Amino acid sequence: MKMVKYSEVFTFTDQLTTCPYCGARTEMFLEISESPNQAQIHKCLSVKCGFEFTEVNDN
Ligand SMILES: [Zn+2]
């Protein structure tokens, strides 16, 4: 079971995280380590987008 606040979940990659919608840089503003899998809440740095999503480390 994944405890995810946001509707969209993406898996960590080795590459720099970018917004899945607009491709802009994102900012990690919350890291959740209590969950079985480490999760990071990211927010798109584009003011026009501002999309928030959760990255989950499945390893
Ligand atoms: Zn965006």
Largest sheet: 4 strands, mixed
Order of helices and strands: EEEE
Q: Number of DSSP strands?
A: 4
Bound chemical compounds: zinc ion
Label the overall shape.
globular
Major sheet: order of its strands?
Answer: 1-4-3-2
Give the N-to-C terminal Cα separation. Answer: 15 Å
Query: What is the typical, i.e. mean, pLDDT?
Result: 82
Structural class: mainly beta
SS field, number of helical segments = 0
Rg measurement, Å: 11 Å
Q: Please give the domain count.
A: 1
Low-pLDDT ranges: none
Strand portion = 35-45%
Helix content: under 10%
Provide structural commentary:
The protein is mostly beta strands and about 60 residues long. The protein has one domain. The chain contains no helices and 4 strands. A 4-stranded mixed sheet has the order 1-4-3-2, with no helix packed on it. The protein is globular. The two termini are about 15 Å apart. Zinc ion binds near residues 19, 21, 24, 46 and 51.
Outline of the structure:
By secondary structure, the chain is mainly beta. It contains no helices and four strands. It has one domain.
